[in-house]
Design goal:
Elements lengths: L3 H5 E3 L6 E3 L3 E6 L5 E4 L8 E5 L2 H9 L2 H6 L9 H22 L3 E3 L1 H10 L2 E6 L5 H15 L5 E3 L4 H8 L6 E5 L2 H17 L12 E2 L14
Parallel strand pairs: 7-8, 8-10
Antiparallel strand pairs: 1-2, 3-4, 3-5, 6-9, 7-9
Helix pairs in contact: 2-4, 4-7, 4-8, 5-6
Length: 224
């Protein structure tokens, strides 16, 4: 019978460090021998685990570590690091859409401002390239209510991505409220940020931020 440690931790084939499974990405050889990312840890077959960082996946591809770990013929796409990022980005967009449908996200400057004054806001979303004045006003409102560090700041979505998730045009600002759907959104965005290997405060003053630009120009993508 698997112990709790065995069930919740695996060893990265790149670093050889044992980590919680939430800090790793599982890969399996699909039928036909094509290596496939298994972000939800559900696909059948023998899996191998890599730290959930783009650099680690790039190293595994370059050094043929997947083939060695699986001990058999497997086809590894040289664009696998980009494929993983696209899947993580798609999962984040899907989580945003689900949170909106659950009523856990409100959009529009005035609605976000009102939410910051009275609702349990856990994150504020600003479209990449949003006007500095609007961002500054909302962050000031967040600090007045919550202090510092305050709610998370999410800046990794383009305006087109937000339009897709909300099913309407011109979505620039949104607020994420406490609840399971909001927590899932923060987890999915956090996974994308960690994979890209960069995050810093969009607004300064020690605001907590998920501000990672879409360097691959992934555009609007669907659910994986």
């Amino acid at each position: 019978m698997a112990t709790r440690r065995e069930a919740s931790e695996r060893t990265c084939i790149v670093t050889r460090v044992t980590m919680p499974v939430d800090a790793l990405i599982r890969f399996v050889a699909a039928p036909g021998g094509v290596l496939t990312p298994d972000l939800r840890h559900r696909l059948p077959g023998r899996g191998v685990w890599v730290a959930a960082e783009r650099g680690a996946v790039e190293t595994a591809v370059r050094k043929h570590l997947f083939e060695k770990a699986l001990e058999g013929p497997v086809t590894v796409d040289p664009e696998l690091p980009d494929q993983v990022e696209r899947l993580l980005f798609a999962a984040a967009i899907a989580a945003l859409s689900m949170a909106r449908k659950a009523g856990t996200v409100v959009a529009g400057f005035s609605k976000v401002e009102a939410a910051l004054a009275s609702e349990p806001v856990v994150a504020v979303v600003h479209a990449a390239g949003a006007g500095e004045d609007g961002v500054a006003k909302l962050q000031a409102a967040a600090r007045r209510r919550f202090g510092i560090p305050g709610p998370q700041v999410i800046g990794c979505f383009a305006a087109d991505d937000l339009d897709l998730a909300f099913g309407r045009a011109n979505v620039i600002h949104a607020a994420v409220l406490a609840g399971p759907a909001g927590a899932n959104l923060l987890a999915r965005v956090g996974a994308l940020v960690r994979y890209r290997g960069a995050h810093g405060s969009r607004t300064g003053d020690n605001d907590r931020s998920f501000d990672v630009s879409n360097e691959l120009s992934l555009g609007t993508v669907g659910t994986p």
